[in-house]
């Protein structure tokens, strides 16, 4: 393997240094890992993950490895309104290197189908 191939291999979480304060690259790595976890959570009524649905507004990883996630649901009356934020918190907290996760469920701005990714809207027949 040449040096350019070695540089293109992505570092795994086992090879990362999660000492505090986290550097910017590690914070970005953790954010990407958390987003990958969000892509594993599905709305029970719609066969699309919550990230592609546009339900995750922000994932912020601080230098102290604490994470703030701002999210919404399709409606305040969503049947998973009580459980979905907890699922998000558990999935994000299970990422190696994350210390604590705070999930803030917001209703402003309200969710619309235009918050879905283009691929999700296409899959749902909204395009």
In the predicted model, the low-confidence regions spanning at least 5 consecutive residues are: 1-9
What is the fourth-level CATH superfamily? Fe-S cluster assembly (FSCA)
Shape: elongated
Q: Tell me the distance between the termini.
A: 45 Å
By CATH, the architecture is named 2-Layer Sandwich
Number of strands: 3
Overall residue-averaged pLDDT value? 89
CATH T-level topology: GMP Synthetase, Chain A, domain 3
Our Rg estimate from Cα atoms comes to 16 Å
- What's the number of helices? 4
Protein traits:
single chain; 127 residues; alpha+beta; GMP Synthetase, Chain A, domain 3; 3-stranded mixed β-sheet; 4 helices; disordered N terminus
Please tell me about this protein's structure.
- The chain is α+β, with helices and mostly antiparallel strands.
- It has a single domain, classed as GMP Synthetase, Chain A, domain 3.
- It is 30% helix and 14% strand.
- It has a three-stranded mixed sheet, with helices on one face.
- Strand 1 (56-61) and strand 2 form a beta hairpin.
- The N and C termini lie far apart (45 Å).
- 23% of the residues are buried.
- Residues 1-9 have low confidence and may be disordered.
Task: Give a concise summary.
It contains 4 helices and 3 strands. The protein has 127 residues and is α+β, with helices and mostly antiparallel strands. A 3-stranded mixed sheet has the order 1-2-3, covered by helices on one side.
Topology:
Blueprint: H1 3-8, H2 24-38, E1 56-61, E2 66-71, H3 84-93, E3 100-105, H4 118-124
Parallel strand pairs: 2-3
Antiparallel strand pairs: 1-2
Helix pairs in contact: 2-3
């Amino acid at each position: 393997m040449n040096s350019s191939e070695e540089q293109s291999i992505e570092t795994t979480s086992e090879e990362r240094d999660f000492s505090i304060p986290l550097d910017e690259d590690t914070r970005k790595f953790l954010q990407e890992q958390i987003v990958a976890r969000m892509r594993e959570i599905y709305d029970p009524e719609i066969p699309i993950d919550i990230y592609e649905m546009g339900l995750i507004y922000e994932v912020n990883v601080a230098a102290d490895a604490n994470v703030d996630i701002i999210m919404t649901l399709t409606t305040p009356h969503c049947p998973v309104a009580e459980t979905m934020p907890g699922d998000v918190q558990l999935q994000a907290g299970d990422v190696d290197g994350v210390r604590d996760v705070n999930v803030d469920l917001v209703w402003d701005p309200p969710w619309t189908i235009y918050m879905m990714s283009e691929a999700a809207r296409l899959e749902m027949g909204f395009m």
